[in-house]
Amino acid sequence: MTGTAVQSGTAVEFRGIRRSFGATHALDGLDLQLKPGELLALLGPSGCGKTTALRLLAGFDSPTAGEILIGGKDVTGVPAAKRDTGMVFQAYSLFPTMTAAENVAFGLRMRKVGAAERARRAAELLELVGLGARGAAYPHQLSGGQQQRVALARALAVQPSVLLLDEPLSALDARVRVQLRDEIRRVQLAEGITTLFVTHDQSEALAVADRVAVLNAGRLEQVDVPQIVYAHPATPFVAEFVGVMNTVPVADGRITPGAAEQAQIRPEALRIGAQEGISGTVLTSTFLGAVTRLVVTTEVGELTVDAVSHPNLPGIGDTTTVGVAA
Amino acid sequence: MGAQVRGRRWRVVVLGLAAVYFVVPLLSSLEFSLRKPGGGYGVANYLAIATDPVLLEALTVSLEIAVITAVLVLVLVVPTAVWVRLRLPSVAGLLETATILPIVVPPVVMAAGIAFVQANLNTPLFNALFSSPISALTPFYVVLAVPFAYRAVDNGLAAVPLRTLVEAARNLGAGLPTALLRVVLPAIRSAVLGSAFLTLALVLGEVVIARILLYTNTFPVAVVVVGQSQAGVSVALTLASLVLTWLLLLLVSFAGGRRRVS
Fold first, then answer.
1. How many separate domains does chain B show?
2. pTM of the model
3. What are the tens digits of pLDDT across the range A28-87?
4. Cβ–Cβ under 8 Å, residues A51 and A61
5. Which DSSP string do the residues of A24-64 spell out, in sequence order?
6. Which residues in chain A are closer than 8 Å to B187, comparing Cβ atoms?
7. Bridge-partner residues for A284, per DSSP?
8. Is B48 part of a structural domain of the chain?
9. CB A201, CB A90: distance < 8 Å
């Protein structure tokens, strides 16, 4: 889902952030800026430091070195309760003894907003996330997706400068995940709120973000719009982590065994049955719906090819050719 | 199928025997407590409890000690257990071992030790402390109740996503004390009530320390003393205590089962 963010949010900046646990550097000199109103996905494998970065921004942890700025103001030493951020956790973060409406109103209560205004605002936000009729329900009476919607409404209720999303979709099933992902993006665009979305799921990051920041072993590998990160990965790590990448020897734009030049080609940029291709044997064939993913063993190694699903595609053990799509 | 039927029959037999084991003594006690000295049945023994000023005073003293002990135990245990889980998980094992000590050290040893202190330290503070059963016995009962209360509260905390709940509350503007009072405490309410109930039950049944320190005006000691001269009243008292305990347990279960807080 794409969209244009309302440029009304607050800028966020990580400036030379380092967070060490003994000899281990969870973050090693992170410099990252979030533009006002943009949704930036912080993408990386487990243990890369993305959640540490989010927790530092939320105020749950302190950096070993560096500064964090929200709206140009240094908030490095500001406690979590005074950071003006709203956070949606992975799961199970709703207060179990409060109703959905009470959960949403909790932050307003902490800000001493009157009961009538709290109730009005909670109802409004539950309506925004499509749960207007479930205000009286307790968390255990809601599905996982509904609970995360309430958590989103609760985070937005205090009108924070920055919205923090800590893998909020990871505990949900595939269909609900896509629905809620689009919902989050719709709400984020409507509110124009600067958002940091931490995820290890590259498809989620590419689908929802204005920009994607890829993190590896505490260091930033690349920050750019999803299309550029996917099509022009800055490092071999990004190429491998964001989607599947084939590294093949090429000469004159064709796969050529022994050629000195190495090219990185996505599976959808290769073609099965190409006349000027290299021959090989189909090792695996995975039907993914509109496309079928084939892994073909060739003289230059195993190549992953995404072909439009068709009954005449070669099967496992069949001999075929693989070439670069025109 | 045959094995299932046999298993079910065995369950019925075992449960039946267990019921007989518990119910027969209770019914026998009830029957005994209702006997009248000249023959026949009546509620004279129960009326004697309600009208005996010594027993009523002992019950009042014990309930006061129980409530103060329960409050002190919870004030000590809940923040400690939360703090250890949130900030010092590495010392959880050490703390658990430390809280077992009051169970390992028999109450009689503790009481003998404090009796020595009581006899030899003639300071105004100690004299004030030992001047009433409430101020003298409450610290002991706090120590005795901590192992049970700590386990109950810690189990309650293990059952909720504590860190996430506290961080969510803090993120929404709550300080740590507010997060504990408004979010964590309601979430572990049944564990907290359970530990309070265990403390009440412990205080309402503790005889050894009170007797060694010569505080005879607590309810459990009064039950023992009455039992030496009035067997019928003593049994009636025991049954009444049992009913009171069950009522408290029911209250805890009812309160713990409710989801709504405010």
1. 1
2. 0.79
3. 999 999 999 999 999 999 989 999 999 999 999 999 999 999 999 999 999 999 999 999
4. no
5. EEEEEEEEEEE-TT-EEEEE--TTSSHHHHHHHHHTSS--S
6. 95-97
7. A295
8. no
9. no
Q: Which residues of B touch A80 (CB under 8 A)?
A: 167, 170-171
Q: What is the CATH number of the domain that holds B134?
A: 1.10.3720.10
Q: Please answer yes or no on whether A97 and B186 come within 8 Å at the CB atom.
A: yes
Q: How confident is the model at residue A226 (pLDDT cuts 50, 70, 90)?
A: very high
Is residue B47 domain-resident? no
* Domain hosting residue B77, numbered range: 53-261
**Band of pLDDT at residue B258, cut at 50, 70 and 90:** low
CA distance linking residue A226 with residue A222, whole number of Å: 11
Each residue of B10-47: b (16+ CB within 10 Å) or e? Answer: eeeeeeeeeeeeeeeeeeeeeeebbbeeeeeeeeebbe
How close is the nearest chain B Cα to the Cα of A222, in Å? 29
- Min distance A57 CA to chain B CA atoms (Å): 11
CA dihedral of residues B185, B188, B189, B193 (deg, nearest 10): -110
Cβ contact, residue pair B261, A97, below 8 Å = yes
Residue A80 contacts B where some CB pair is shorter than 8 Å? yes
Task: Count CB-CB contacts under 10 A for residue B101.
Answer: 11
